[in-house]
Inverse folding.
């Protein structure tokens, strides 16, 4: 469990990046911090492993105030995956994955075995083991980054827009892979993104942030869609006029019980299937249905 | 050729002396510039001070330096230490800017990420920053190596010049063969030193070659 207690971050220039932020991140869940750039989400993430120091408040991991821990050993027991992978360009894939175990003094042959295991876990071919990062594709580098984050089997995994720089198809692969991994491993994942689709796909809990890391709303994706707390949230998730504002189109579908659905801009979003019993008042009901069904159809 | 054969002991001795005298300044300048370049790259103030100071050192005429160094160091005028110190100063003057550039060439993102996964600042310098500065450091060290080998000849004017002796002696005797042999052998040393440095670089930085080859093959594909 990670707990932010009225945490603030005031930069020397006078920017208040984080203003009295409080949040409890439960263990073994994926919590996604989502917001536009400059909302302080990355600052929040980097405060968990003390890459940034709060100027006010405190952060506790399992009840222990992290400002009293040694930052280097703290970072070694927290997995960290970042955009553009952040791999060491002069180390082979296996050595990159085993970075922390090697720093902790694990011998090279054991580290190699561990790294090869992790490569399998994240879906990398073993023949990439002795390549350098520059010889891999962007998606492969990101997988190596995830494997490195898992190398010490940490309880906590911090992910800072890890799939932001790869193309959409690879990104969607990596997202599904992360979901599978998380089902198996059950880490406490803190995931930062500006992409609400990614947040809703990956998050058990989604925290929508405004400027200064003010919490606009937090809850499960369903809760947020069902009861957006403000116009800001409704706009951000797209249930006011955007792609999640779905309505029935005038175009009838061929099959009985199916309706074409369009989004807030009038573009067709998918097909809605209703049981005969649900037909009554379908129009009013369809208005509040999230496009989760449409998304599932895409995937 | 016959002159060379008859004087092989003299020339061989001068060759060895040349090698022995040019190696220490090259190594010393590297050792001095590894920390100085790091410091110069760290703060704007130190960068200005260090680069400015060494830039100034480089403008001192070499002969003046040979003559004044004994007074400063308290050595005899013909002591080889004088030449060594003078050459180290010039080598470092060239090297320090390159070293600062070498550290500047290391991606900040990689350094940040190394810190984030748990490198202490000491291990991060030795295992990440210095190796990644290596390619640019090496490129500058190659320049320093060639410069030092050729500049050493000037030391012949104060009796410690290795192959430089062949220049002064050949000039005094108006005997061009001797001068040409001196030039060829100096070039040869410079060339061999350079190849040794390249080989050391390949050994210590295997990722460089691996990293470069796919991009060149890519370029070839684009051209073809």
């Amino acid at each position: 469990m990670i707990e932010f207690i009225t945490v603030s971050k005031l930069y020397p220039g006078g920017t208040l990046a984080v203003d009295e932020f409080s949040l409890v991140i439960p263990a073994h869940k994926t919590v996604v911090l989502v917001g536009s750039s400059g909302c302080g989400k990355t600052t929040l993430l980097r405060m968990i492993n003390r890459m940034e120091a709060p100027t006010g408040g405190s952060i506790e991991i399992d009840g222990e105030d992290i400002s009293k821990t040694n930052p280097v050993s703290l970072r070694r027991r927290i997995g960290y995956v970042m955009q553009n992978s952040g791999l060491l360009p002069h180390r082979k894939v296996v050595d990159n994955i085993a970075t922390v175990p090697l720093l902790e003094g694990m011998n090279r042959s054991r580290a190699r075995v561990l790294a090869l295991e992790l490569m399998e876990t994240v879906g990398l071919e073993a023949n990439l083991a002795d390549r350098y990062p520059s010889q891999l594709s962007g998606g492969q580098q990101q997988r190596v980054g995830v494997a490195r984050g898992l190398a010490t089997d940490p309880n906590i995994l911090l992910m800072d827009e890890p799939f932001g720089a790869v193309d959409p198809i690879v990104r969607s692969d990596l997202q599904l892979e992360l979901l599978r991994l998380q089902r198996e491993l059950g880490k406490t994942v803190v995931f930062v993104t500006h992409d609400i689709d990614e947040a809703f796909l990956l998050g058990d809990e989604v925290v929508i942030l405004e400027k200064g890391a003010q919490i606009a709303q937090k809850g499960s994706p369903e809760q947020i869609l069902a009861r957006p707390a403000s116009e800001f949230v409704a706009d951000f998730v797209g249930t006011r006029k955007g792609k999640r504002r779905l309505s029935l189109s005038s175009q009838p579908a061929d099959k009985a019980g199916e309706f074409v659905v369009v989004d807030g801009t009038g573009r067709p979003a998918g097909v809605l299937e209703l049981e005969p019993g649900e037909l009554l008042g379908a129009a009013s009901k369809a208005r509040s249905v999230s496009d989760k069904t449409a998304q599932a159809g895409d995937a | 050729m016959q002159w060379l054969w008859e004087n092989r002991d003299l020339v061989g001795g001068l060759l060895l002396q040349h090698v022995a005298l040019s190696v220490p300044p090259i190594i010393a300048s590297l050792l001095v510039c590894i920390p100085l370049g790091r410091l110069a790259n760290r703060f704007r103030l130190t960068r200005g001070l260090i680069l400015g100071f060494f830039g100034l050192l480089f403008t001192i005429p070499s002969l003046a330096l040979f003559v004044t160094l004994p007074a400063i160091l308290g050595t005899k005028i013909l002591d080889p230490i004088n030449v060594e110190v003078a050459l180290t100063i010039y080598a470092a003057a060239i090297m320090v800017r390159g070293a600062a550039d070498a550290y500047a060439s290391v991606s900040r993102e990689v350094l940040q990420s190394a810190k984030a996964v748990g490198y202490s600042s000491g291990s991060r310098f030795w295992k990440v920053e210095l190796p990644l500065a290596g390619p640019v450091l090496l490129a500058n060290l190659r320049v320093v190596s060639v410069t030092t080998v050729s500049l050493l000849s000037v030391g012949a004017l104060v009796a410690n010049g290795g192959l430089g002796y062949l220049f002064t002696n050949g000039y005094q005797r108006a005997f061009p063969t001797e001068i040409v042999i001196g030039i060829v052998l100096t070039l040869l040393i410079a060339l061999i030193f350079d190849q040794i440095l390249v080989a050391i670089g390949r050994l210590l930085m295997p990722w460089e070659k691996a990293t470069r080859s796919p991009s060149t093959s890519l370029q070839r594909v684009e051209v073809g």
Q: What stands out?
A: Chain B touches chain A at residues 107, 109-110, 112-120, 123, 128, 131-132, 205, 207, 210-211, 214 (CB under 8 Å). Residues 2-223 of chain B form a domain with the MetI-like fold fold (CATH 1.10.3720.10). Chain B has one domain: 2-223.
